[in-house]
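From the thread on structure requests for the teaching lab: each student submitted one protein with a one-line request. Submission from student K.M.:

"Model Limonene-1,2-epoxide hydrolase from Mycobacterium simiae, tokens only."
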Amino acid sequence: MPDTKQASERVVRDFLGSWQDRSLDSICSGFAPDAVYHDVPVEPIEGIAGIRAVFQAFLDVFADAKLDILSLAAEPGLVLVERIDYFTMNDGRKVVLPVTGVFELNNGKITRFSDYFDLADFETQSGMRL
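Reply posted by the TA:
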């Protein structure tokens, strides 16, 4: 798949929207096998097996997740997304987190995904430590 602006945007929109369905296979389907996922306040995760494990851990503690796009800018192979992530924990607590994501794509697959957010804000709201 060529990395056009439209194709790159579609992959990212599909990934962000897939969280509501809670299917790990759908969530991970847009990633290259050697992709890197980096919640920038913590260490990056390299490779799809590690990414799947991290995403599964999130699915295990969140009853619901909605990643709401506020603005999106796309170029071939690069997508920047400003969003608000809404999570409902299994115990009913709500997490509302402003996030900026940077996605690099190659051949229609996400090769690098970096999220920038306030770690203390996330940990306070969720009770989790990343």
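TA comment: The mean pLDDT is 95. The chain has one domain: 5-126.
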